[in-house]
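Put briefly, the fold is written as integer tokens. One such record reads:
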Amino acid sequence: MSETAFGPGSVWLRDEPARPRPAPLSRERIVAAAVTLLDEDGADGLTMRRLAQRLDVTPTALYWHVKTKDDVLDLALDRVFGDVPLPPATADWREDARVLIRHWRTAMLRHPWAPSLVGRPMLGPNVLTRTEFLQAALTRGGLSGLPLAVTTRLLANYVIGAALTEATWRRTADPQAQREARRHVAADPAAYPTLNASGHLDAERWDDDVLFDHGLDAILTAAHPS
């Protein structure tokens, strides 16, 4: 059976069919196994056949619960967002947003396949609940209308881009490669004077956590300078 045989449409916009399903398989088990496979091999390594083998069922049994691989990816991505803790809302709206975004980055780095999928329709309950929390915090900071939409987009793109870059770098580069990259820049200070002065690609000067936190603060300050 084709993984797209049931046609397009987000899993979040379809009602689950009210029909008997083979026990003991469940959507929860499918999603948990899918996340494990994705952590091991990434999105390209996930197929319905491999997922069925991991669950020790036939591919046909999977289709009682999910219609396509896209369904599985959407459900798995929402499961990752479920790992992002929701802090209690406080009077400090910037800190509320800051804590949420930091946790979001941590969750995506724990599942490095996730950032590249965030461009998919994000309609799962975990995603929407955390987006609601973020916008509520920004609203308490006085944002509304276009500034609210822009700041939400800025923060989302910032954390997704940062996580994607960091996850890719961690997967493909080793400490020696990082040092060589820095030496390549430092070897020609006449061509790259500003990059040398700023410590570009020097992981020993500022690590990813420091750079991320300062970038996040810059966005939140620019969103509402007062």
Q: What stands out?
A: The domain at 85-223 is CATH 1.10.357.10 (Tetracycline Repressor; domain 2). The chain has two domains: 11-80, 85-223.
